[in-house]
Design a protein that fits this description.
Blueprint (H helix, E strand, L loop, with lengths): L14 H6 L8 H16 L2 H20 L4 H9 L3 H26 L7 H17 L5 H13 L3 H30 L4 H30 L5 H14 L8 H29 L5 H14 L11 H12 L4 H29 L4 H7 L2 H7 L2
Length: 370
């Protein structure tokens, strides 16, 4: 039987599962449910399906956003942006990239001494990949390609990326929660931030509880459990630096610092457009924008990013057309320079676009097994 479950008899369930358990045959409800789940997973692995789904989500958010603004006013606001503020924002993006590359280099150091320039190159390749792949799959591509180049297990490099993303997400959640309570205490968005922060805390507590339950149950001592433990252990090696208090403090500092630089980048854009916002409001808007990239939209978070920016700035009293101008400008400045640098890095390091697309899934990274 073929892997995707399409046998000559039309059996959509897993061949091994049906052979071992007749109750999983296509006629049973359980078998049909698992068949549907397997088909859904197989469809989502298709790059075309992921792209079409992401484009549909982006189009919906973009349509809602555009319906609220005067595009002519937005264009005039963009044309009137002060060049000095725009150039300062671009310079700050490069500073932020360098700090993030240094953080990644430190995370990789227990596994291999990676030069800063190499960490910077593959970091930007990841940003470039995010412009090609939906749902931020460029992070998975970066893990695979960097692991192959640095001679490190791809699961370990994936672990370093996981540490980055978790650290960034927790920092952003804290910033949005605190800034939202300060600048928009009664807003719906601030309420969402509180709910999201609570959900994260509950989720972490539940994960710990499930982990302890699995350890005590003995399930992880079975064959499949041992395989899971081996994968988790390899991914966990990417967090080796966090086992020492000094290393954990360093990573924390190198997480907060680039976010602070990014806040200043939005401040430069805000000043270039003449928006009357203060630093706490910059942080609030930037945090909301960062959270919006978690939505599985089209490459580059097109549409979802603009919707989040216009919504957050609207809460702060910024007119929709100006809000869209600011969001478009920060989106372009934050995404274009890293992507262009990543394109240059792919050419210099002879990385093929086909390799980036093939590497842009977590299953591809896991299947590499280091």
């Amino acid at each position: 039987m073929s892997r995707d479950g399409r046998s000559p008899e039309g059996d959509a369930a897993s061949g091994a599962g049906v052979a071992a358990n007749p109750s999983l045959a296509p006629g049973s409800g359980l078998g049909a449910g698992r068949s549907f789940a397997a088909a859904a997973r197989g469809a989502w692995r298709s790059p075309v399906v992921r792209l079409i789904t992401g484009l549909a989500i982006s189009a919906a958010f973009l349509a809602v956003t555009v319906s609220r603004v005067d595009l002519g006013e937005t264009a005039r606001a963009l044309a009137s942006a002060a060049p000095g503020g725009v150039l300062l924002a671009i310079a700050l993006v490069l500073v932020e990239l360098t700090i993030r590359a240094e953080r990644w280099r430190i995370l990789l150091h227990p596994s291999a001494p990676v030069p800063l320039r190499s960490a910077f190159a593959y970091l930007t390749i990841g940003y470039f990949a995010n412009t090609l792949l939906p749902a931020r799959l460029g992070d998975a591509a970066r893990a695979y390609l960097a692991g192959r180049s640095f001679g490190i297990s791809s699961l370990v490099t994936l672990g370093t990326v996981v540490v980055e993303r978790v650290s960034d997400a927790l920092t952003i959640l804290v910033v949005v929660l605190l800034a939202g309570l300060v600048v928009a205490p009664g807003s719906q968005l601030a309420g969402w931030a509180e709910v999201l922060a609570g959900a994260v805390v509950i989720g972490l507590a539940a994960s710990v509880a499930v982990g302890f339950a699995l350890l005590r149950s003995g399930l992880l001592d079975r064959r499949f459990g041992r395989q899971i433990r081996a994968v988790v252990a390899r991914v966990g090696e990417g967090a080796a630096i966090l086992r020492r208090p000094r290393g954990a403090a360093l990573i924390l500092g190198l997480t907060v610092l680039p976010f602070g630089v990014a806040v200043c980048t939005f401040g430069a854009i805000s000043g270039a457009l003449g928006l009357p916002l203060n630093p706490v409001e910059w942080a609030f808007v930037l945090g909301v924008l960062a959270l919006s990239t978690a939505i599985p939209a089209a490459p580059g978070s097109l549409g979802t990013y603009e919707f989040a920016g216009v919504t957050a700035l609207g809460i702060l009293g910024v007119e929709p057309s100006q809000a869209l101008a600011a969001t478009v400008l920060i989106h372009v400045i934050a995404a274009l320079p890293p992507a262009l640098l990543g394109l240059v890095a792919t050419l210099v390091l002879h990385v093929r676009i086909a390799d980036i697309e093939a590497a842009g899934t977590v299953p591809a990274v896991v299947s590499a097994e280091g």
